[in-house]
Specification:
The complex is a heterodimer. By secondary structure, chain A is mainly alpha-helical. Chain A is built from 22 helices and five strands. Chain A is globular. Chain B is an alpha+beta fold. Chain B is built from two helices and nine strands. Classes of the chains: A mainly alpha, B alpha+beta.
Chain lengths: ~475, ~170
């Protein structure tokens, strides 16, 4: 009990949104998040249909424009930085599988056994390595996925089928927790968001255990047990909480809080893992390589990345460059910086692996900033494609809302540097501040921590300057 | 006691928020300063480029001019119809295969400006990009980048000093 009390988050810096009646009523209703999921499922079905049967011209097809421009930009620029895993709350991909597994979509049926073999997820895979590799695989084919509607349609349909299969085999949301390539990075970057779901008082949870307790885990007539297999009583990071709100409905003691909190609070929780460290590297590397290939003027790189029109050998070269950057080059810089920092601070008794894994989290704020800057770049330039596509989602010359003839119009490109540069510099500052806290955490005090931090700060600054060069140089 | 702690937390948060606002102001000023860097001495000349366009790249992919130069670009598509839209200047034209179109303008704004295909030309059309570097100052090609890179260094050093002082203050307190 003492141990738990020691890690209790500082409540004074939190504002519990569930104290406000309307918010509580909405989140306690069974219609939340069902209606959001239903609305997104409608759009998702349209995305798959337009992807499979619509025009092959990407910028005239609803699937490409609404998934890779509108949804992606909303996700990276707004949802993740402001609300963490809010997308997972309303994601339609696991919906069908979850409803099949629960034998219902809205209200828990007390006697219904789940339609699933209910297997436990294999222990060696209870981490995000699979999500790291699934993201790297999808990223390798991104030039095709992002531009060919049929590939987007097949991929998203495939996600849904895999999710359904895993719901039938394993307990609860194994797909979201361990497999989905999007969920992995949303989880990592949700640690930055100023929104969290936690318990109000951990002692209340501790006293309310036993056969009658833990409704949040087991479920009740009011709601399902946590689909993400998390125990809210010990939740101290956003990474694996899908914000589905089931625990808000099931907790009989009203002990769940939805807090507004300081930005990046989770990153200070000293729970560091190698799989998450690699996720941070993979995302930073992907942001840099995507910026080079998609925003840069180098045509040969685009033809290397495009398996559909380039040669397989060149494509393999591109995959080697992308995956090599994700798994070797960026981690290599951080490893070298950690080694140098350890040497400079004279703390060679601290295992290098510990410093390396801990300092990897400094790539989280900068990585998110890089993705925001990248996404702003194509959002402002390409979002006007969405206007005609609304009237003509399949590219069949429809004009449903009389916007079908709207031409491509890049919006305020001259403003972009004024958005991208501050975003990157704020990301850099937050990363260095976090690096200082991590150095303090690893060195067990304040002495010499700046020496340990200096090489990592140099790597972060170099990455920022590289990104500035790619966007403005 | 609790009041004092709350006060300290709120002060620290306000200080942190102010510091981040300062970082944003530095970044915006850097872009503004880089964009309005005094133009290089010497007379402006006319620079003429023939830019061939093939799915999904331009050749040459980077064009270098000096601020104040009159720029003439002849667009020549080689495989399908391609367009040319210059960000920041709003110049737009297109041409069909075998044809040529010409865009003329005065490069009065310094910095890097992307030009991109404005006619749907295939799957990677949204990523068909080239680059115009408008040089200002005396030696450097892009003052916007240089100003923001300098701002990044300033922010990095400033943040290290900031966290270093936080450490010293805490040491003194304890």
């Amino acid at each position: 009990m003492i141990q738990i009390a020691e890690v209790e988050p500082r409540q004074e810096s939190r504002v519990n949104l569930l104290r406000y009646g309307p918010a509580k009523r909405v989140l306690r209703s069974r219609w939340f998040p069902f209606l959001l999921i239903l609305a997104n499922l409608f759009v998702f079905v349209l995305v798959i249909l337009t992807g499979l049967f619509g025009t092959p011209v990407g910028n005239r097809n609803f699937s490409i424009i609404f998934v890779w421009i509108v949804w992606w930009a909303l996700l990276i620029v707004l949802l993740i930085p402001l609300a963490g895993r809010l997308w997972c709350t309303m994601c339609p991909i696991p919906a069908i599988g979850e409803w099949v597994q629960r034998r219902g979509a809205l209200v828990p049926r007390s006697r219904a056994r789940p339609l699933s073999l209910g297997k436990e997820w294999p222990k060696p895979l209870r981490n995000i390595w699979l999500q790291n590799f699934s993201f790297a695989a999808v990223a390798s084919f991104s030039a095709i996925i992002l531009t060919r509607p049929k590939v987007t349609g097949v991929l998203l349909l495939g996600f849904m089928v895999v999710a359904l299969g895993l719901f039938l085999l394993y307990r609860r949301r194994a797909f979201c927790r361990y497999v989905c390539p999007v969920s992995g990075f949303i989880g990592l970057y949700s640690t930055v968001a100023p929104l969290e779901l936690r318990v109000v008082d951990r002692n209340v949870c501790l006293k309310h255990c036993g056969a009658q307790g833990k409704e949040c885990m087991k479920g009740s007539a009011q709601g399902y047990g946590c689909p993400w297999m998390e125990y809210p009583g010990s939740l101290d990071r956003n990474s694996y909480c899908g914000l589905c709100g089931e625990c808000i409905k099931t907790c009989p003691l009203d002990n769940i809080a939805l807090n507004l909190r300081p930005v990046g609070a989770d990153l200070l929780v000293p729970e560091r893992r190698l799989d998450e460290a690699y996720k941070a590297f993979i995302m930073l590397a992907a942001a840099i390589i995507y910026s080079v290939v998609m925003m840069g003027p180098w045509g040969w790189m685009k033809s290397w990345a495009d398996l559909g029109s380039g040669s397989p050998v060149h494509f393999l070269g591109y995959v080697a460059m992308l995956v090599g950057s994700m798994l070797v080059v960026v981690p290599g810089f951080f490893l070298a910086a950690s080694w140098l920092g350890r040497l400079m601070a004279g703390v060679t008794h601290i295992p290098l692996r510990r410093l390396f894994v801990a300092f990897a989290y400094t790539a989280v704020p900068l990585g998110l900033a890089a993705w925001i800057a990248f996404s702003l770049g194509f959002l402002f330039i390409n979002v006007s494609y969405a206007i005609p596509v609304l009237s003509d989602p399949f590219g069949w010359a429809w004009n449903l809302f009389h916007t079908g003839t709207h031409g491509w119009t890049p919006y305020v490109p001259q403003v972009l540097p004024y958005l991208q540069a501050p975003t990157l510099l704020v990301g850099l500052a937050l990363s260095i501040v976090l690096g200082d806290r991590i150095a303090e955490e690893c060195l067990g005090g304040r002495s010499h921590r700046l020496r340990a931090l200096a090489p990592v700060a140099a790597v972060l600054t170099a990455a920022t300057v590289l990104l500035l060069w790619l966007y403005l140089g | 006691m609790r009041q004092m702690r709350l006060g300290a937390v709120s002060f620290a948060r306000r200080k942190g928020a102010l510091a981040l606002a300062g970082v944003m102001v530095i970044a915006v000023l850097a872009v503004a300063l880089g964009s309005y860097f005094p133009r290089r001495g010497g007379s402006a000349v006319t620079r003429e480029f023939t830019v061939s366009a093939r799915r999904f790249s331009y050749s040459p992919e980077r064009l270098l001019v000096h601020q104040g130069d009159r720029v003439v670009i002849h667009l020549q598509p080689l495989d399908v119809t391609h367009g040319f839209y210059l960000e920041g200047y709003g110049i737009q034209t297109y041409a069909t295969v075998g044809g040529e179109s010409t865009a003329e303008f005065v490069a009065d704004k310094p910095g890097m400006f992307r030009f991109r295909c404005s006619e749907t030309c295939g799957p990677l059309h949204p990523f068909m990009v080239g680059q115009l570097d408008v040089q200002s100052g005396t030696r450097y090609t892009n003052t916007v980048f240089l100003a923001t890179a300098a701002a990044a260094l300033m922010v990095a050093v400033g943040t290290v000093v900031y966290v270093g002082r936080r450490g010293r203050a805490s040491d003194t307190d304890s």
